[in-house]
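Handoff note, outgoing to incoming analyst
You'll be picking up this chain. Sequence as last confirmed:
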Amino acid sequence: MVKQLIQEDKTLYLCEACGAAYPEKEWAEKCQAWCEAHGGTCNIEIIAHSVPVEKAGEQG
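Most recent structure output, in case you need it:
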């Protein structure tokens, strides 16, 4: 299950395994599945869709 984050007027989705944030829930789910299946490593093709995140305002 990915974590939802409200940042300003945007909703982002976080991979709970590595903390990467994505504007689309689909990419966060793919990232989390990869991380869990591959011992917490990141896939460069998936992580390329991530966006920077400010830690203030985290919801969960």
